[in-house]
Amino acid sequence: SSAFPDRAERFYFATGISVFPEPNATTPTAKVALFETSDISDLEKGFRFSGKFLFGDPYELSNMFECPDFFLLSKEGGAATLTSGVAVVKASSMTTRHDYFYMGSYNATTLNVEQTTAPVAVDYGNWYASKTFWDSTLQQRILFGWIGEEDGDYAQRGWAGVQSIPRVVVFDDALQTVRTYPLPQLEGLRGAPSAKIATPTPIANDSCVELLMSSPSAPRAQHEIQATFQVPASSEFRVELRLLQYNIGGSYTSVSVDSNMPNGGALWNNTDQPGGDYKDFPLPGTDAGADILNCSASCEADRRCVAWTYVRAGFPAPSPPFNYAPRCSLKGTLPSALNPAAPCCVSGRPQSAWISLNRESSGTTGSTAPWQGRASILPDPFDSTEGRIKLHVFVDHSVIEAFMDDGLERVSGRVYVPTASTAIANGVSVCSVTGAQESAVQLQEASVWPLNSIW
């Protein structure tokens, strides 16, 4: 970009590396290192380590970053500059197998990005090794990612991995975070609408409104869906967009939004939540109550965090990276089970809305584990006493990419549904499920479009 050129006398190359922070350290730290050269004509031999790091967090448990990316986002749209833009480092963690955006300000002296905003997951699902480029014609940054497989049945399926649809990356100054939403030009692939609801329609508790019936004559499982809901701002709810549905009551995959995550806001004494750690840091230890509040607040502020555990002083683990206490462990996935007989620990979860790609009822031949993460319920722009949720989903046979509220949250994954003998699983429904008040959820509008091939 002309807004951020390399220095004429020096060129830099960024790569993910593992660094042992101390001579006797046994656990490496993931960093993005800068290599430099004054002669860009010799890419093989010219670059040497500059001694500087673009980014690194000593408490992140990833021991290696992959596919680092660095770019600027404008707060007003269009091209950004070093003085007006938000500096973003995108890094892929080999430990968690997720991509993250780290946002802040760029220090031109140290060549380092100093975080000023909590990091966020690029996508909560099976989405990795992403890269961006600057579209100079339309003045926008475009993001692609890799949607891989979750098992080893490559040969039976005939392929392994796919590139995601292109996404536009913008900085939301009001919410101080990154949005990534589908490239608007994808609308050119739409056929005539298969289904459309333009009139607000209440959805009774534990019921569904069918948008597209599953049948051999229905469009194939290659479509785009948009649905907007009005939801209660002060009571529990869950809305679902059911996809790849094989008749009502049959198999389906769903993208759901809940008003609160499982056990959101809970606090458990003498309880551990094993697994899922992505960040682990020491605490002062002078006041256990203050340490617990510190750990809880750290999780609340970090959108990647879905659970936390405080480890009391006197309970260090026998080996790195957890061989110190007191400490706080932040977790990016919900542990499968709690250990309620653990005097070492106090555990809890933030209170937060929750988006999920659910596959347990899908009939898939692959993994049925959900992909999940935290979400925010934005106020309805037409009724501040209610909330509004917009879901935008692309289905391309086994690939599902879901976006909430114009890309504020993202979750992607794979679902392998075998073809049935008399019909295929291509139905679409919207549902309000257990927890909502009677008719408290209203479908404002919904559309389903078949998608043509790009070829």
Brief rundown of the structure:
Helices cover 4% and strands 46% of the residues. With 455 residues, the chain is mainly beta. A hairpin with a 2-residue loop joins strand 26 and strand 27.
What topology emerges from the helices and strands here?
Layout: E1 11-19, E2 29-37, E3 48-56, E4 65-73, E5 86-93, E6 98-107, E7 112-121, E8 128-135, E9 140-147, H1 154-157, E10 162-163, E11 167-172, E12 177-182, E13 195-197, E14 201-203, E15 207-212, E16 222-232, E17 238-245, E18 253-258, E19 267-269, E20 277-282, H2 288-301, E21 307-311, E22 327-331, E23 345-348, E24 353-358, E25 371-375, E26 378-380, E27 383-396, E28 399-404, E29 409-414, E30 427-432, E31 441-450
Antiparallel strand pairs: 1-2, 2-3, 4-5, 5-6, 6-7, 8-9, 9-10, 9-11, 11-12, 13-31, 14-31, 15-30, 16-27, 16-31, 17-18, 17-30, 18-24, 19-23, 20-22, 21-22, 21-23, 24-25, 26-27, 27-28, 28-29
